[in-house]
Every structure is written in C-alpha cells, then in structure tokens.
Amino acid sequence: AQSVAQPEDQVNVAEGNPLTVKCTYSVSGNPYLFWYVQYPNRGLQFLLKYITGDNLVKGSYGFEAEFNKSQTSFHLKKPSALVSDSALYFCAVTPYTGGGNKLTFGTGTQLKVEL
Amino acid sequence: SQTIHQWPATLVQPVGSPLSLECTVEGTSNPNLYWYRQAAGRGLQLLFYSVGIGQISSEVPQNLSASRPQDRQFILSSKKLLLSDSGFYLCAWGGSFTPSGTSTDTQYFGPGTRLTVL
After folding, report:
1. A105/B108 touch (CB, cutoff 8 Å), yes or no
2. Alpha carbons A44 and A21: distance in angstroms, whole number
3. Least confident of A95-99, B22-26, B30-34, B49-53
C-alpha cells in the first residue's frame, strides 16, 4: 500500500525568504506525485505533478518540486515566499501500476508566511 | 474548460436525518469522479470513486453511499446521519483509468460542502 508523510505540521517563513515543504512517499513501482494547496474553506487547487522525466518540476504561482528517487522525496519549494502563499499544502501519490488513480494524501503542512 | 460544482456549500443537519450532496462536472465527458472527506481541516479520506454511470467503488465501509445517475453527476447520500459524519466533503474529477488500470491524469477538486451534524 502507498503512503505519504509530511513531517512538519507547520512551516513558518519570512516573506521574501525561500520556502521548503517536505514530502516523502512509499509506493510499489514508479510513483506519480502531486502537490495541492488549500485555502480556508475551499477545495484543493492543483499546483504541480511529477510523472516522469526531469526531476525538477515547475508549477503554478512560482512553485517547484524536486523528485528524488533515492530518498523517496518530493519536496515543494519556492525561491521567494509571499504572504499570500500562506495556506495548507498537501502532497499526494499514486502508483504507476496496479493502483489506478486513487490518490493517497499526506496529512498536510500549514505554511505561514509573515512580513 | 472544465468546471466542477458542489452544493450546497454548507449544511447543518440533525443526527438521524438524511443527506444528499450533489456534484456536477462541466466541459468533459466520461470523467472519473471521486468523493473525499476531510476531517478537522487536515487529511483527506477517499470515500467513493466512479469510472462510469452506475459504477461505484467504496473505499471505506460507513454510513454513506454514492450514486452516479448521469455521466457528469455524482451524489453522496446517507439515510441517517451520525455525529461522526461531520466534515468537509470534496468532490473531484479526472484521473482517467486506462484498460490496464493506470493513469497519469490529475484530479481537480470542487469547492466543497461543509457538513455539520448536531
């Protein structure tokens, strides 16, 4: 069975500083990995995904994520954080084979960007 | 472009009452559809998914059921609500299954329904 771990419940960053939200995964076979963002009382918005190819994936709003197969990680990054980036971030995984497209989500990381 | 709708946006129901939440998708045909529940503002739990009309798979045994009467309509129901059914319910579309059971497609989420059972 697949699983996702987001080890930090909350990440605090000053505006203008780089941010990293961590994600590690466990899955049989090659993973499909996703990052979503959720603002209060809203649905999840898709940010980016890794399927295959370049390990550095660029997504919406200046976010990017780096796939590291040896460390089974898919950390979300942004070079310069904005206050408006403050939200709940979810990492998700589905296996390349055998699992259809049923996503398994992490428990989420609350990002707080302060002035 | 594709759009996903959910209603109602918020709902307060007494314990033991019935439930019907609706999700519709526009701008796509034969989507895969999903119902998730998010408790306490955190983790998402997949409740049901559907690959076609009348085809429902349940992920978690519970007090809820789902139906797909039309291609782009997905309904979540309960005959008698429990306190533990409170939560934020999210519908999603996408993630088409191939004949071999694999997919690379992204799931796109609706705005959600906040259900409070009192």
Report:
1. no
2. 16
3. A95-99
